Amino acid sequence: MILGLDPASVLAFLGAGVVLNLTPGADVMFATASGVSGGPRVGAAAALGVALGALWHTILAAAGLSALLAAFPLAYDAVRYAGAAYLLWLAWKSWRAGAAQGGEGARRLGRAVWRGFVTNALNPKVALFILALLPQFTAPEAGPLWAQILALGALFAATGFFITAGYGVAAGVAGAKLTRHARLLNRVSAAVYAALALRLVLTGGQR
Fold it and tell me: Of the residues 24, 67, 98, 182, which has the fewest C-beta atoms closer than 10 A?
């Protein structure tokens, strides 16, 4: 039992989180592109960054800042376009990367974590998603709402990491077998990043 929450509610939450994370979305696409371009460990590192981004949004939700973001469309749009601009920058970097850069994944783990975090942290739809999902599984009698949100958010981030990392590692294994086509893989990664940016602008980056 977590913070006095009903075990059935916690299991229901975990089930919902697993189903949502299994559905390929922006996080999965990012980890997959990272795995293709840098190898299995970079794919897993990108998933870790994404999970840290989810924890960041959980902290914001617990503090009530996500509600403020939802209430001010201009602030929401500013964050959304900043995220799209960052993804386009990643697309440009990947497109220009030479074939020799395809095997440097082991030396870019920290960068993969950072990029995964920034990509998720600059996606306001993730903040709104967490704000909408987590409170549904809280209970007034179980203690402070913020503590329940943090606990549930940590569970969501943990399950999301393992699932997203699975996609990233699988893509890395497949990409490692195609190292002679590193330039092509970089172009594929660039296309994925650009598609994520377009999706974020057009749809708000829904998961």
Answer: 98
Whether the Cβ atoms of residue 102 and residue 37 lie closer than 8 Å to each other: yes
Q: Among residues 29, 17, 1, which one has the least CA distance to residue 157?
A: 17
| HSE toward the beta carbon, residue 95, CA cutoff 13 A | 11
CB 138 within 8 Å of CB 3: no
Say how far apart CA 4 and CA 71 lie, in whole Å: 31
Backbone angles phi, psi at 150, to 5 degrees: -65, -40
Q: How far apart are CA 82 and CA 63, in angstroms?
A: 22
Domain definitions of the chain by residue range: 7-203
pLDDT in tens, the chain (207 residues): 556 677 887 888 888 778 777 766 778 888 888 888 888 999 999 999 999 999 999 998 888 766 676 677 787 777 778 778 877 887 887 787 654 444 444 347 888 999 899 988 887 777 777 877 777 777 777 778 788 889 899 999 999 999 999 999 998 888 766 655 656 666 776 787 788 678 777 765 444
